[in-house]
């Protein structure tokens, strides 16, 4: 959870539209080590800590907490007690990016912009702004998560299905 908070805080870009961070690495590690349900709730704790205790000016919005839970569940479903292959990571990253980043985050940003008098983006406008970044990040995140999880799996720190 601490790693997730730190990696999410180390970001660049405008959180209201486009933000780049390394939080996806911690999300994958949480899912790989803890499984879907504990991973999901760990992501909720991480989101609440990041957006309340360590808040740096942005507003807390429960939609992002829901997305964090979904991200942890997806990571756990794809990675927990599974053999790490590039195909598995590619598919995991596809669903993670599609459901939490493209659909979830875009929806939450759109809903937040409705309540703000300074900026009112349409959902489609936000989607078209955000989609190229997500398409570029998909192979990059896949490669980084693959390398990190393969190295972690070689350390044998996490029990596999056959070991339980």
Automatic annotation (TrEMBL):
Q: Name one GO molecular function term.
A: transmembrane transporter activity
List the keywords (alphabetical).
Answer: Membrane, Transmembrane, Transmembrane helix
The protein's organism comes out as Limosilactobacillus reuteri (Lactobacillus reuteri)
Q: Which domain of life is it from?
A: Bacteria
Protein name according to UniProt? Folate family ECF transporter S component
Q: Which residues cross the membrane?
A: 16-39, 59-80, 92-115, 135-152
């Amino acid at each position: 959870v601490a790693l997730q908070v730190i990696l999410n805080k180390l970001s660049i870009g405008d959180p209201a539209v486009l933000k780049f961070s390394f939080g996806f690495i911690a999300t994958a590690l949480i899912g790989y080590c803890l499984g879907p349900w504990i991973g999901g709730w760990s992501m909720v704790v991480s989101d609440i800590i990041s957006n309340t205790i360590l808040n740096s000016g942005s507003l807390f919005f429960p939609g992002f907490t829901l997305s964090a839970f979904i991200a942890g569940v997806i990571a756990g479903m794809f990675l927990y007690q599974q053999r790490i292959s590039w195909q598995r990571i590619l598919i995991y990253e596809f669903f993670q990016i599609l459901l939490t980043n493209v659909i979830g985050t875009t929806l939450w940003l759109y809903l937040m912009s409705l309540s703000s008098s300074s900026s009112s983006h349409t959902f489609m406008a936000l989607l078209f702004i955000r989609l190229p970044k997500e398409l570029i990040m998909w192979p990059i995140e896949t490669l980084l998560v693959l390398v990190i999880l393969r190295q972690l799996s070689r350390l044998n720190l996490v029990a596999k299905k056959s070991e339980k």
